[in-house]
Amino acid sequence: MIESNKRARTGQFTPVIGHSGYLRAIGKQAASWLTTEPGFSTVAAQSRFRRRCCCSQSPVSPRLKLASDKPLSASAAKLRLLKRLRCTLRFEKKVWQLGARLVAGVDEVGRGSLFGPVVAAAVILDPAYRIRGLRDSKLLEPERREVLAERIRQHSVAWATAAVDAARIDQINIYQASRLAMREAVLRLQPGPEHLLVDALRLDCELPQQPIIHGDALSASIAAASILAKVERDRMMVDWDPVFPVYGLVSNKGYSTPRHLAALREYGPSPLHRQSFAPVWNAPVPQVVLAFMLEEGGEELESLESTQTA
Asked: How is domain 81-232 classified at the CATH fold level?
């Protein structure tokens, strides 16, 4: 009690602002100290006490701020998690130690897009050359992705990309289309890989393989594949944007943004939109049919009619 009184007199106590009961208790103790301490000016001391305890604004902890904010969306929470993960070669090193030197990382991009193909890439990194800065392509700025993609092409043992278009996605679903694109990318590698590190999926091939959850944020090989696939698919979106300018493909890359959804409601889906995706087949305007598609359809119909008459 003597020690606590000493700390209180010297101003070393920290009352909790907002807890009125605690402040009232402190106020009663302070009043007794102020009236019994010789040489103190009661009015001045009480004024200093009020300024110190009630008027000062202590900085708010970031954790308290987060508690009052709105809950994070699923995508924002995932992005925060990916930023905390470290992308290294530890998975590759384990396989190298087992004797396999040609280890391919495999990843896809565009599963959630409403427009265009899903694109996959496979990359075999050179164990003797380290490419710095590899990480999940979603965490990189476009300019940085382009720089890293060029380094990957120059210094990797082998790399390949493959795509499955929207029509095929509608036929077999996006999950199977993603696996198909990844498998095709692996088959295009020259030289062929001895072991696969795959982002979360298992492929239909005989090669030894290891699915890794969040692999593009943990494995350098999968991150490299993610970067190549992202750069390739973004290039496709830039090429298609002048053909379908109303959808804003350069900015949204075919994903579900407010502008993209508004364009679907106003203009309907294009021939390259994925009809099996709800925002597309729910669009109130029918799908756009291009002139060349009508011409091809007419030629096929004429050919069929001529065959039947013959």
From this structure: Nucleotidyltransferase; domain 5 (3.30.420)
